Amino acid sequence: MAGHLTLAPELDAFRHAFEQIADEGEALAGALTDGQFNWRPQPDAWSAAQCIEHLNVTARVYLPSLDEGIADARQRGLYGEGPFRYNWIGRKFVQSQALPVKRKFKAAQVFTPPPSRPRGEAMAAFRAYQVQFIDRLRQANGLDLSRARVKSPAVTWLRLPLGSGFELMIAHERRHLWQASQVIADPAFPRSGR
């Protein structure tokens, strides 16, 4: 079909992951009431809503870094074909977020979710951010994903390979969807809508 862009294999795998994450998020939260969505197992624990909102906040902060990394790579002519190999720091950051969860991290202030939000609004934003990540994959098509760099919004000195940056977002989103699923699986979770 005209205008159809074939993504490089690694980017296409990332696209599939973001689409799957959007579907998993909807399956997880789609049938919850606002009360269930915002229920917290402990006063200092996140609700399913806060897990999703943390992903929304992270995407809102991280997407401009992806834009800068992609624009910089294009300007510098960092084109290449995969498969790509990523440096140890990129691999380490991805592993730190991967399932199963081995270590908990406190979210940096910039990524702290709001205390509550209606499920419909939070999930609409979540789906929209998955589409925006996929759009960035299309923009990155043809770039050398190991030489192009993306700056971390949380650790300002850190510049990860662009491919690691996409992998990090995928691992991070899967981690917090799992966290939301643990909230919903809690024995005290309200089974009838409130």
Order of helices and strands: HHHHHEEH
| Radius of gyration, in angstroms, nearest whole number | 17 Å
> Structural class of the helix and strand makeup?
mainly alpha
Q: What portion of the residues fall into strands of 2 or more residues?
A: under 5%
Dominant shape = elongated
- Please give the CATH architecture: Up-down Bundle
CATH homology group: dinb family like domain
How many domain regions? 1
* Count of helix runs: 6
CATH-defined topology: Four Helix Bundle (Hemerythrin (Met), subunit A)
Low-confidence stretches: none
Q: How many strands in all? A: 2
Separation, N- and C-terminal Cα atoms: 48 Å
Could you report the average pLDDT, rounded to the nearest whole number?
91
Name the helicity range.
55-70%
What is the makeup of the main sheet? 2 strands, antiparallel
The CATH C-level class name: Mainly Alpha
Oligomer kind? single chain
| Biggest sheet: strand arrangement | 1-2
